[in-house]
Amino acid sequence: MGNPKATKAKIRPRAAAQAVPAARSARGDRIARAYQQLRELIVWGRLAPGSRVIESDIAERLGVSRTPVRSALHRLQQEGYIVGVGRGSEQRLTVAPLTQDDARDLFSIIGAIEALAAQHAAGLERPSRSELVAKLRQLNGALEQAADASRPDPLRIFDLDTSFHRTYVEAGAGLRLLAVHDAIKPQAERYVRLYTSALVDEIARSVEEHEKIVEQIEAGSAEGAWRAVQRNWRNAAGRLSRVILTLGERGSW
User: Which of 153, 160, 116, 156 is nearest to 136 (CA)?
Assistant: First the structure.
């Protein structure tokens, strides 16, 4: 029989080597959770636009150490949810404000991304296209009913509008386009969530524009679908701009 101590000595390095990827995976999971939680707080307005972001406070709020929070904040800053104010050691992090110019840029970008997805959706085989059109009309009809209710629910209106757009994007976008959309769209949702109550009276126009998108996809017109989506987002930016002028921007650069 071999020496038990020698056997243990051989096993330990292997066990240690196996532990390294596991530790890295656990660390990555903590960072991902911190990122998702922080992004949700920002998108839902629970961290107000322009508010100071202090690493230690966020760590305490999320119940994690400062290390994953630091990594999450770095990623959120790269994506534009967090901005740095000041320079060098005096720089402080704040939640990105909601401004006219930023809204215009975001809506233009999303309009371009979703227009490409709609273009591809219009090129689907007829059975798939017919199924997609039925789903879109169902969602758009529900959106119209929600807006016409005696007491419209802004959150339901937001969810239905989001589902309408998400449905044709998922049908037409490839993995890369979908990844870009997922990274950008929540930033626009910050505006829609905050100002939805003031936009309820404009939903009828959105419903009409949505129907134009559906008609072009149903007809298999790639160019028509592209134009209809671009028009919808361009008009949405105009509607939002008027509301921001009335209610004011949130936060400041």
Answer: 160
The whole-number pLDDT of residue 24 equals 60
CATH for 4-95, options being 3.40.50.720, 1.10.10.10, 3.40.50.300, 1.10.287.110: 1.10.10.10
Query: Model's pTM, two decimal places?
Result: 0.80
Q: DSSP letters along 72-93, please? A: HHHHHHHHTSEEEESSGGG-EE
- pLDDT over 80 at 71, yes or no: yes
Q: What gap in Å lies between CA 55 and CA 34, rounded to an integer?
A: 12
Q: Which CATH superfamily is domain 100-247 in?
A: GntR ligand-binding domain-like (1.20.120.530)
* Residue with tokens 């959770």, as numbered in its chain: 33
Q: Where are the beta strands (DSSP E) in 7-128?
A: 52-53, 82-85, 92-95
